[in-house]
Amino acid sequence: MAYLFSIPETRTVKVAGETDTYPVGRIFCVGRNYAAHAAEMGVEVDREAPFYFTKTPPLAVAHSDSTMAYPAGTENFHYEMELVVAIGAPVFRATPEQAADAIYAYGCGLDMTRRDLQMKAREKQRPWDLGKDVEGSAVFASFTKAGEMAALGEQRIWLSVNGEVKQDATLNELIHKVPEIIADLSKYYHLQPGDLIMTGTPAGVGAVQPGDRIEGGVDGLEPISLTIGVPE
Ligand code: MN
Questions:
Q1: Under a CB-based contact definition with an 8 Å cutoff, are residues 65 and 72 in contact?
Q2: Low-confidence residues in the chain, pLDDT < 70
Q3: Which label site among 45, 50, 83, 167 has the fewest CB atoms less than 10 Å from its CB?
């Protein structure tokens, strides 16, 4: 039986050393996972448990080294540099130890955000979708398989705009660590290969303008870049 109409195809991310690519299923994002970022947003950190929002594939997915048109509906479009975790095995009701075994790869990601719409939603106690689930706003560099990455901790995570460093932290500052995040998500979701987790951004977020060039990195991973294009 044929489909009545076509929908966008699955989008994929390259994996260093692999010919085949990683197909993106779901994108879970952690909010407020660095204390200094929560402080700059004027909110408290919840150390009890992480909280989440999502971005909707395939249209949310974009690749490093591309140009993203300044999106519709915002006058305050922000970058957020993040460590991304790619799931490679089913995970449900897992312990952190079991969760760690399901990590397939890590990568650099950008959680591009309509900050004005997110803040308006926050004030009105409404969902963040318009602020966060922006088409093309989940930007990914090539992934590095977990076995090729040193234990997470001292690695620097940084971002610059037009060569000026704006975000500069280490993965030690993650409040909820990666295995704990996966284990927590697995209380609510049947995680599976293709699921990505954006683990939150350090302090130093800010606005970009058309023509700006974003570059970022995490020690040991492929760097990421994005150019902001003219408004749609
Ligand atoms: Mn984020």
A1: no
A2: none
A3: 45
* Prior bond of 58 cis (ω within 30°): yes
Residues with C-beta atoms within 5 A of ion ligand 1: 80, 111, 201
Query: How many domains are contained in the chain?
Result: 1
Cα(154) to ligand 1 centroid in Å equals 20
157 lies in a domain?
yes
Asked, for residue 5, whether it belongs to a domain, the answer is no
Amino acid at residue number 135: E
Cα of 80 from ligand 1 centre, angstroms: 6
pLDDT, tens digit, for every residue of 113-130?
A: 999 999 999 999 999 999
Instruction: Kindly give the pairing relationship between strand 144-145 and strand 61-63.
Output: unpaired
Instruction: Give me the count of residues in the chain.
Output: 232
Does some domain include residue 3? no
Q: Which domain holds residue 71?
A: 12-229
Contacts 24+ apart (CB under 8 A), 165-168: 166/79, 166/204, 166/205, 166/206, 167/79, 167/81, 167/201, 167/202, 167/203, 167/204, 167/205, 167/216, 168/202, 168/204
Residue 1 lies in a domain: no
115 CA to centre of ligand 1 in angstroms? 11
The model carries a pTM of: 0.97
- Domain holding 34: CATH number? 3.90.850.10
Task: Tell me the H-state helices in 28-74.
Answer: 35-40
d(CA 129, CA 51): 14
Q: What is the pLDDT of residues 185-229, one digit of tens each?
A: 999 999 999 999 999 999 999 999 999 999 999 999 999 999 999
